[in-house]
Design a protein that fits this description.
It is built from five helices and no strands. By secondary structure, it is an all-alpha fold. The protein has two domains: 32 residues, no CATH class; 36 residues. The longest helix is centred in the C-terminal third of the chain and has 28 residues.
């Protein structure tokens, strides 16, 4: 087998198939894997949300429930303001 490896043979998702078919030598593949640098320190966490789902930031939960209570109070205040604004609009439309 040639010293140069075809990149398609090295893909983790397809390497097993190429190993079984003999297109990739197991020793060569193992040597390649061992030579790869450890880049774990360069990793970053990734958070995702599917379309239509709310995104919850877990870091806010660590602050405690005080923030949740304040947010609930703010939401209630916003609802009260919306209702008051709606009532005022009705009064001006129908004297």
């Amino acid at each position: 087998m040639a010293d140069t490896l075809d990149p398609k043979h090295l893909d983790k998702r397809t390497a097993e198939r190429y190993l079984r078919s003999g297109q990739l030598d197991e020793g060569t593949y193992e040597r390649h894997i061992k030579e790869l640098p450890d880049v774990a320190e360069k990793s970053v966490p990734v958070e995702t949300a599917m379309d239509g789902e709310e995104f919850f930031d877990d870091e806010d939960d660590e602050a405690g429930d005080e923030g949740d209570e304040a947010a609930a109070d703010d939401a209630e205040d916003d609802e009260d303001e919306d209702e008051a604004a709606g009532d005022a609009a009705e009064d001006t439309e129908n004297p």
